[in-house]
Amino acid sequence: MKAPSTIGQQTYGDIAPDFADLTDRVLFDEIWERSGLSPRDKSMITVSALVALYRVNELPPHLEKALNNSVTPDELKDLMTHLAFYAGWPAASTALGALRAVMHRRSVSDEQQGTDK
Questions:
Q1: Which of 32, 54, 70, 109 is deepest in the core (most CB within 10 A)?
Q2: pTM for the whole thing?
Q3: How far apart are CA 50 and CA 36, in angstroms?
């Protein structure tokens, strides 16, 4: 059995414990754990929705989750390029900047640990 999520508690627990509980229990422990779609597919869908809706605050952690769910950086770049024509150039441009920052953070973290991706 997978350990319960604590992302909501870490992010909102200090200011909105009920919101944090719903985030953990419903969103991440129920919705994300449903078996109808793979975690990789859910990540692609979620990132697409966040890009299209210009949800810049929520995008970086979901880019991290997508990379952890085996979505490649090239796939994310292609996804964002494709969405530029449907969601708008500014949305895709902003998303690419967020991806750059996430990839840089991951690279720096790997270098600090002495590993290569």
A1: 32
A2: 0.86
A3: 21
Determine the distance from the C-alpha atom of residue 22 to the mean position of all C-alpha atoms in its chain, rounded to a whole number. Answer: 18
Q: How far apart are CA 72 and CA 29, in angstroms?
A: 24
User: Counting Cβ atoms within 10 Å, is residue 90 exposed (0-12), middle (13-18) or buried (19+)?
Assistant: exposed
DSSP string, the chain: -PPPP-HHHHHHTTT-HHHHHHIIIIIIIIITT-SSS-HHHHHHHHHHHHHHTT-TTTHHHHHHHHHHTT--HHHHHHHHHHHHHHH-HHHHHHHHHHHHHHHHHHHHHHHHHT---
| Cα separation values, 108 from 50, 97, 99, 104, Å | 25, 16, 14, 6
Copy the structure tokens of residue 58. Answer: 């929520």
Identity of residue 69:
N
Q: In the structure encoding, which two tokens stand for residue 116, read together?
A: 């290569």
